[in-house]
Amino acid sequence: MSNEYKSIHEFDFNLICEYFSGVERQGPGSPEVTLKALSFVDNLTNESRIADIGCGTGGQTMVLARHAPGQITGIDLFPTFIDLFNLNAGKLNLQDRVKGIVGSMDNLPFQNEELDLIWSEGAIYNIGFERGLNEWRKFLKTGGCIAVSEASWFTEERPSEIDEFWKDAYPEIDTIPNKVAQMQKAGYISVATFILPENCWTEHFYTPQIMAQEAFLKKYEGNKTAEEFIAGERHEALLYYRYKEYYGYVFYIGKKIK
Ligand code: SAH
Asked: What does the pLDDT read at residue 202?
């Protein structure tokens, strides 16, 4: 029975992976936003060590690499994403400075105080914002920075449909002041926070998925798992357009001061 479960689970996993391998990004964001967040990070040199955690296929990592000095390690749980990541780094001739490795964010392969910068766009939710900030801190040097984007509420109250959706999808979603307080409690000084503009969700995330969804449904015609998965993605996009005044992604940039 457990084998049966495993094979179904792995099938889902592969499907999701295949779907997201075909699009520009695996989460909301844009090159402009990556550069804006980077503008709050100081003290990087050619010797700097940077980690991009939950890097996916590396859209944002390559932007980072072209504008920041130092060595960058991208880490993601999905080997398919890492293969594409390393392919992308090679195409841009960045392979000497940018390497993708398979690994999990709850068991990172870094030494204590090895890193000058921890980057993570749309991925820390996988272990939770507070847990990620707390557990990753030891890998940063004093004076090192962390820059993560995270789903956040813009208002104290919101319609129940979107409230319930997020409480089910990611109960740790919270208001910006509460997230900043969590960052401070985890031992960082908050350097900057800013809301990602709408085009990070539309132009760079949901719009490229429209074509990918049609192709995917055609390929997996009659496959219930695939159909349900795409229906879920479409529902999520629809909720965004309906309720975007109430939530979005926020970049949080912090510094380890001691
Ligand atoms: N940073 C990318 C991808 C965001 S999607 C972008 O902005 O486009 C979230 C990523 O987290 C996915 O690539 C997923 O494979 C990865 N992920 C999920 N759980 C993980 C874990 N435990 N460790 C490392 N990566 C993980």
From this structure: 94
For the chain, which residues make up each domain, given as ranges?
Answer: 27-196+245-256
Q: Is the CB of 145 under 6 A from ligand 1?
A: no
How far lies 178's CA from each of 9, 156, 175, 182, in Å?
35, 11, 5, 6
pLDDT in tens, 58-83: 999 999 999 999 999 999 999 999 99
Tokens of 200: 């990070």
Q: pLDDT by residue (tens digit) across 85-139?
A: 999 999 999 999 999 999 999 999 999 999 999 999 999 999 999 999 999 999 9
Strand-pairing partners, residue 75, are 53, 101
Q: What angle do CA 213, 218, 224 make, to 5 degrees?
A: 85
**Do residues 248 and 196 touch, judged by C-beta distance below 8 A?**
yes
C-alpha of residue 212 to centroid of ligand 1, in Å: 19
Considering all CA atoms of the chain, what is the largest pairwise distance in Å, rounded to the nearest integer?
56
Into which CATH architecture does domain 27-196+245-256 fall? Answer: 3-Layer(aba) Sandwich (3.40)
Q: Rounded to the nearest whole angstrom, what is the distance from the C-alpha of residue 76 to the centroid of ligand 1? A: 6
Among 105, 108, 83, 77, residue whose Cα is nearest residue 21: 83
258 alpha carbon – ligand 1 mean position (Å): 28
By alpha-carbon position, which residue is closest to atom 12 of ligand 1?
56
